[in-house]
């Protein structure tokens, strides 16, 4: 398990997340970030090139040492980036201390996503924004069947990724009010590609 989790899985994650079809989502979501930004599960740093000049610093939280090593080498502008070796379920930051929280394709994987969302809300300042793009539960019954059926096996090979998490209601139950949410299938296998993209404010 050690080699798979520590070496192979980070490389697979990096490879799969380099899919060029994800780029427009990254551009839109990261382009809306501003101020002091906390990125949850920064992975191999594929969002870092998209942060604009209105971002003062990025706090890049990531529990996988293998992915952090890749993210440290990722292309980026002069932007200050600090890496935080922690899990989203226990964010080592003060209450109301960040302007923007970013999550891109992490809520599928974080083991206790409800606790993580509570933490994201805690660290966001009043009026701050949660920016997200996630894949999750599809609206079509046939696709949901496949998502429910595949998830137990998929989780085991993909480092914990669930295909069937109801992203919108999870974010709302975490104490956020949706400001914008757009959903739809990206090109690709339907169980893996139903996307939720948008922004939410702490209630
Ligand atoms: C599919 S990858 C997405 C990586 C990156 N956000 C991107 O868009 O390329 C899922 C990420 O969630 C991270 N992750 C898994 N469990 C986590 C946790 N408990 N807290 C924070 N991040 C976690 C993984 O290490 C990985 O970086």
Tell me what the structure shows.
This is Methyltransferase type 11 domain-containing protein. GO terms for molecular function: S-adenosylmethionine-dependent methyltransferase activity. Keywords: Plasmid. Residues 38-132 form the Methyltransferase type domain. The chain is of the alpha/beta class and 203 residues long. It has one domain (2-202): Rossmann fold, CATH 3.40.50. It has 6 helices and 7 strands. The chain has helices at 2-17, 23-31, 65-72, 113-123, 141-157, 167-173, and strands at residues 35-40, 55-61, 81-84, 98-104, 124-135, 176-185, 194-202. Strands 3-2-1-4-5-7-6 form a 7-stranded mixed β-sheet. Helix 1 packs across helix 3 (65-72). The longest helix is centred in the C-terminal third of the chain and has 17 residues, at 141-157. It is globular and about 45 Å long. The N and C termini lie far apart (41 Å). The site of S-adenosylmethionine has 21 residues, from helix 1.
What is the topology?
Layout: H1 2-17, H2 23-31, E1 35-40, E2 55-61, H3 65-72, E3 81-84, E4 98-104, H4 113-123, E5 124-135, H5 141-157, H6 167-173, E6 176-185, E7 194-202
Parallel strand pairs: 1-2, 1-4, 2-3, 4-5
Antiparallel strand pairs: 5-7, 6-7
Helix pairs in contact: 1-3
Bound molecules: S-adenosylmethionine.
The site of S-adenosylmethionine has 21 residues, from helix 1.
> What's the arrangement of strands in the largest beta sheet?
3-2-1-4-5-7-6
pLDDT average, as an integer? 97
Question: How many DSSP H or I helices?
Answer: 6
Give the helix proportion (percent range).
25-40%
CATH homology group? Vaccinia Virus protein VP39
- What is the CATH top level name? Alpha Beta
Query: How large, in whole angstroms, is the Cα Rg?
Result: 16 Å
Mind describing the biggest β-sheet?
7 strands, mixed
Distance between the termini: 41 Å
The overall strand count is 7
Order of helices and strands: HHEEHEEHEHHEE
Low-confidence stretches: none
CATH topology description: Rossmann fold
Portion of residues in beta strands equals 25-35%
CATH architecture: 3-Layer(aba) Sandwich
Question: What is the overall silhouette?
Answer: globular
């Amino acid at each position: 398990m050690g080699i798979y989790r520590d070496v192979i899985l980070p490389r697979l994650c990096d490879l799969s997340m380099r899919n060029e079809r994800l780029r427009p989502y990254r551009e839109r979501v990261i382009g809306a970030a501003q101020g002091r930004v906390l990125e949850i599960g920064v992975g191999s740093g594929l969002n870092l090139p998209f942060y604009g000049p209105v971002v003062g610093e990025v706090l890049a939280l990531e529990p996988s040492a293998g992915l952090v090593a890749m993210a440290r080498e990722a292309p980026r502008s002069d932007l200050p980036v600090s890496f935080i070796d922690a899990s989203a379920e226990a964010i080592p930051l003060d209450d109301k201390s960040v302007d923007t929280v970013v999550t891109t394709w992490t809520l599928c994987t974080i083991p206790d996503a409800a606790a993580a969302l509570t933490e994201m809300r805690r660290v966001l300042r009043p009026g701050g924004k949660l920016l997200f793009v996630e894949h999750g539960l599809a609206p079509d019954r046939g696709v949901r069947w496949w998502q429910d059926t595949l998830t137990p096996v998929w989780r085991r090979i993909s480092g914990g990724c669930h295909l069937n998490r109801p992203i919108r209601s999870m974010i709302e139950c975490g104490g956020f009010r949706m400001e914008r949410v757009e959903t739809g299938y990206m090109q690709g296998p339907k169980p893996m590609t139903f996307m939720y993209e948008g922004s939410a404010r702490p209630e």
